[in-house]
């Protein structure tokens, strides 16, 4: 009987940890590159959500004229086009070590150099953000040049700013 109770408690703990890890990964999968997410999931005690000041680079982008082009297309066409473009851009951001903080329709706010680990310091975040911006522009220009005749193209504006930022949990789960 004691073996059964002990085994049951152990399985409940393991299952609880697996659920917590799955929820954690689902909550952060769009924000954190997969390799960092795996590392954080294996070391949950290294994560801090307490507010802290970090120097980061913020990359923001916006598809030029996308709203005007959208007026002459169906919602499904707009959604599919935007999803395709954002997948390319977000994958590039992850490849360069950035996180997608917020998608704002036809644009997004991305962060380079932020860490959930307490007292972590990134020194190359500005370089990564600039290299990422160049790679994104290359991919979007190539995509636009290869577009079929009559297809609307999507030029892209990108801005980058590096500064100290105070970030952390604002009290919501």
3D structure, described in words:
The two termini are 39 Å apart. This protein has helices at residues 2-28, 34-42, 66-70, 75-95, 125-145; strands at residues 52-63, 98-103, 107-112, 156-167. 16% of the residues are buried. The longest helix has 27 residues, at 2-28. The mean pLDDT is 81. The protein has a 4-stranded antiparallel β-sheet with strand order 2-3-1-4, with helices on one face. It has 173 residues and is an alpha+beta fold. The chain contains 5 helices and 4 strands, in the order H-H-E-H-H-E-E-H-E. The protein is 48% helix and 21% strand.
In short:
The protein is an alpha+beta fold and 173 residues long. The protein has five helices and four strands; from the N terminus they run ααβααββαβ.
Q: Layout of SSEs?
A:
Layout: H1 2-28, H2 34-42, E1 52-63, H3 66-70, H4 75-95, E2 98-103, E3 107-112, H5 125-145, E4 156-167
Helix pairs in contact: 4-5
Question: What key attributes describe this structure?
Answer:
173 residues; 4-stranded antiparallel sheet; 5 helices; 4 strands
Mean pLDDT: 81
Shape: globular
Number of strands: 4
**C-alpha Rg (nearest Å):** 20 Å
Termini, distance in Å? 39 Å
Unreliable stretches (pLDDT < 50, length at least 5) are: none
């Amino acid at each position: 009987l004691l073996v059964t109770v002990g085994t049951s408690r152990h399985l409940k703990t393991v299952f609880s940890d697996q659920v917590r890890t799955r929820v954690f990964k689902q909550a952060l999968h769009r924000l954190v590159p997969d390799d960092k997410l795996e590392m954080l999931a294996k070391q949950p005690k290294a994560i801090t959500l307490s507010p802290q000041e970090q120097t980061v680079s913020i990359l923001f982008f916006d598809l030029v004229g996308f709203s005007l082009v959208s007026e002459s297309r169906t919602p499904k066409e707009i959604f599919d086009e935007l999803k395709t473009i954002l997948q390319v851009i977000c994958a590039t951001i992850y490849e360069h070590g950035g996180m997608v903080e917020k998608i704002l329709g036809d644009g997004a706010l991305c962060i380079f150099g932020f860490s959930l680990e307490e007292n972590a310091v990134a020194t190359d975040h500005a370089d990564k953000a600039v290299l990422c911006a160049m790679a994104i522009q290359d991919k979007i220009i190539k995509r636009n040049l290869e577009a079929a005749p009559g297809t609307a193209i999507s030029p892209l504006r990108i801005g980058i700013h590096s500064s100290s930022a105070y970030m952390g949990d604002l009290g919501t789960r």
